[in-house]
Here is the input.
Amino acid sequence: MGNKKKVLSIQKNILQVLDQTPNQTFNYKQIASRLGIKDPSGRNHIIKNLKKLAALKLINNPTKGTFQAKTKDNYHRGILDVSNNGTSYIISEDFEDDVKVSSTHHHKAFGGDEVLFYAYPTRGKRKKEAKIIEIVARKRERFVGTLQKRNGTMFVRASPRISTVDFYIESEPEIKIADGDRVLISFTRWDETKSPQAKIIEVLGIPGDAETEIHSILAEYGLPYAFDSQIEEEA
Here is the structure.
């Protein structure tokens, strides 16, 4: 890692520590401890970068040797937008350009969700980056994906535009189902686990089949594709 990138990485880590408890002040030893830095050289880097951030007015320096997050005007609302390759941005009325957000900072949000996010202070023309703090509203809680069975455990892989993490299926569904089936799932919860949890509502068919693909699109957007028998007869 180049020296410039290393400095930016240290500064970003410092900002993250301060942001976690914005009302609390820290000295360099406390910040170093939070970052797991114990050696004298590493602590010196913390001190130097704290002074730089304070001089740039990116953090507060209320008393000598203490530092605090400068959070005013740094929290915003927007919509999480995830591309097919997993690159994520937040679309917000507060910014002219989309704000980049790492997949590790999604805070369990899915593509399309309205979120509250923290925008990291930037210098010059560097693209603004953010991390999601809270989910304001879910866009939807039903998703279409492909079933994958792994060592007796079931997961469903949805579109990367929805989630970069597979959904864990809590219990074996009563309906007949096979590995590779396209299914409709209902999101149930996402506790302190790596994967969001869901249950299978319906089997849509085999991927690639024309009828399955049509049903998948309709189910994804909550549109009806199974009609009442009387309506079908009248049609």
Summary: The chain has five helices and twelve strands.
